[in-house]
Design goal:
With 346 residues, the protein is α/β, with parallel strands linked by helices. The protein has helices at 38-51, 68-83, 101-114, 131-143, 183-186, 194-197, 202-210, 218-232, 240-250, 303-345; strands at residues 11-16, 19-24, 30-34, 55-60, 90-95, 119-124, 127-129, 150-154, 168-171, 179-182, 253-257, 262-264.
């Protein structure tokens, strides 16, 4: 079991230019998910290193079959992180010898992490955090630890300008580009989406969950249904749509910051989700958040944020959906071609 999280922030002394600087040492554990991107991994870990977490969990998927050069890169990524830990840190590793794929690698790492910790911060190797992201997550994790209405804490804000003076808000649309959550939330998630798979009135369920969203429409409902269907049938190799479904099923809220504390540096055409490098959110600046935090007076969804998030999310996800549908179409065409050739031989 992990160590209990204190409500006080520990510090360490760093000397710079003859001065002694008081620097935060993170009391909340971090799960760092890596694979085969040494350059991005180095950038993200440089930010992790600044806060010197007391407990670091490093999970790495294995090289893909038939790509011998990837075995070398995967090993380099793992060594890169391990060799750059130069502070007193409890390090635990989950290194896969074979490639499990996005869904299984991440979901199994999350289960492994929360078997040992009550709460924590999760970062993938393409999610570059501002230093203030860690303090923000730590404060939110402690503040809402026992509030089951809150499912997770996002580090990213995709360009929404808050109207008030509060440091964060709440949304029924979660984001996992640099985030934090609790064991209690992780235990709710079924990565096989069996509840959705055998649900009789899927459109009615989605309508009941989205009809109160400002600016909702049937196109959005159809998109969500397609995503959940493709995920449940294992035609999309992912783990995050399962969290989105769980949030809808449980009617929970996610915290989002007033500033963009995490920048996704993984936008490219070969990515699983972030496929458009020219998308506006690929160009978002990395920001800091000011402390002490200004807390909202009430816990309620920010409808304006949700409408903004939905529109941004719809545009980016629709491209991912089209990519998945094209893959499915090519698969069907290939099977049909093979069947026709088999019949010709008969």
């Amino acid at each position: 079991m992990g160590q209990p999280i204190s409500s006080r922030t520990p510090y360490w002394i760093r000397k710079s230019g003859g001065r002694e600087l008081l620097v935060m040492m993170l009391d909340v554990p971090i799960l760092f998910l890596v694979f085969n991107r040494p350059e991005a991994t180095a950038k993200v870990f440089a930010q992790i290193k600044k806060v010197r977490p007391q407990r670091l969990y490093l999970a790495a998927d294995g090289p893909r079959f038939g790509q011998p050069s990837e075995e070398i890169v995967c090993r380099q990524v793992r060594e890169l992180v391990i060799n750059r830990i130069d502070w007193d840190c409890e390090i635990k590793t989950l290194f896969r010898e074979e490639n499990l794929g996005c869904k299984t690698a991440v979901s199994s790492a999350l289960k492994w992490f929360f078997q040992q910790e009550e709460m924590g911060i999760i970062l993938e190797d393409d999610c570059l955090p501002d230093e203030s992201f860690f303090t923000f997550c730590q404060e939110m994790l402690i503040r809402y630890q026992n509030n089951t209405k809150i499912i997770s804490i996002a580090g990213s804000n995709l360009g929404y300008q808050t109207s008030g003076s509060t440091s964060y808000g709440f949304s029924r649309i979660l984001n996992v580009w640099g985030w934090a959550t609790w064991r209690r939330s992780a235990e709710l998630v079924d990565y096989e989406l069996l509840d959705w798979k055998y649900k009789r009135y899927k459109d009615l369920f989605l309508l009941s969950r989205t009809k109160q969203y400002r600016g909702y429409d049937m196109n959005w409902i159809r998109m969500l249904r397609n995503y959940f269907d493709l995920t449940a049938s294992r035609q999309i190799d992912t783990w995050d749509y399962q969290w989105i479904y769980t949030q809808m099923q449980e009617k929970t809220l996610a915290v989002f910051p007033a500033n963009n504390l995490v920048k996704n540096i993984g936008f490219n055409e070969n990515a699983t989700h972030t496929v458009n490098p020219n998308h506006p959110i690929a160009k978002l600046a990395l920001e800091s958040i000011q402390f002490p935090l200004q807390h909202p007076h009430y816990i309620s969804a920010d409808f304006d944020y949700e409408e903004y998030q939905k529109n941004i999310w719809f545009e980016n996800k629709s491209q991912t959906l089209w990519k998945a549908l094209k893959t499915k179409l090519l698969y069907v065409q290939c099977i049909n071609w093979m069947n026709s050739k088999f019949k010709e031989r008969l």
